[in-house]
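ok here's the first one, seq then struct tokens
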Amino acid sequence: FKLPSDSFKYLGWCDIEKHDVRGNQLHCPRVREGPSEEELFFRGEEHTLKKRKQVTDTEKWQKKLQENWENCAELNLSFQDLGDLYQMENFKRILQRLIRVEKLWLMDNSLTDLSAIRLPRCRELNVNKNHFTSFKQLPKIPQIQHLSLAENNIMTLSGISDFRHSPLESLILKRNPCEFQERYRQLVFSSLPNLKMLDGIPKLPEDCSPPDIRVFFKVCTIL
């Protein structure tokens, strides 16, 4: 049996009539749009086509204003279940409009590459539980202060120095393969001189000790 919400399965909140809620007033919106007519045909759901109406340029402009993503300061776009190409395209379209967002959560979205996205004001970004394999695949975040990358697939620390001149203070890399690299903490702190906390642990004296001192402490003397 179809649920009452089935008729709205391909609608965004801005397609529902008689409300004046704007995008910057939402905390956890669903960003997907319905599939194309060709996609619906191959899914065997062409019966939904008759429910659609032609959208005029004026209506498209009104929808853009209602979305109002440009004025979002905090936004949670986690758990979007981006299983189809049209969903991912719409997701990235919205990310490109977040020119004023300061805090953004994108957890568990199966993301692999956001290097074409720029978030000029973002200070806090959480992309835990995605599929990033390199720091080069992250969006451009020049003002980042707190970055969480836990449970991705980042193999090496290559590219981490791109954040050297950023105000990054806190970084979480828990449960990434790079965490098992020899001298992991020392390498991270040497690449990021402004960093104060790594994986929830503040910077310790041994994290910034010179290489010769580290070797000295590893020597075992037997009398």
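and now the second one, same deal
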Amino acid sequence: LVSGSRSSKTFKPKKNIPEGSHQYELLKHAEATLGSGNLRQAVMLPEGEDLNEWIAVNTVDFFNQINMLYGTITEFCTEASCPVMSAGPRPRLWDGGTAAASHFGSCGRTKGLIPAHWYVSGVPFPKNFMSVAKTILKRLFRVYAHIYHQHFDSVMRLQEEAHLNTSFKHFIFFVQEFNLIDRRELAPLQELIEKLGSKDR
């Protein structure tokens, strides 16, 4: 089921993990062990690896796999064919949590009686999502800043400065577009941000 190309009619396809990155190597390890046919071995934490990173890489890969699989059957999973998100004939009803229940309740649905395609594609984000996203993005900015300030010589030796600059520029334009990082937080790279931004004016 692990595949390099993912497509979906419901979700936007996710970019693959960058080749050569540590996460990529973890994913390749997972693929290799999956190929052995021993799924118990495939899910085990590789020796010397961080548990959180292993969980994160696999969670993203599972999302991509489910995304791909569900994308192949979306035309068959409609409100008419699957009026309730359940599994099997017995009443095993799943809801999307309190936020989903209140959202779907406003559409005339009660808790647990959510059509499957709504469950898959329509569960609202949690109320604190933007706050969590801002924290994650602020921390990602700090990684960029660390790379630029402490490791740019290595980046140049590896001839990756164009990739880094493009990635950072995309990141900065995104966070600026939606005001996701306070300007004061951007101070360590303000000169670079202005330089990158001026090229697009």
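notes on #2: Residues 1-13 have pLDDT under 50 and may be disordered. The first helix runs from residue 22 to 35.
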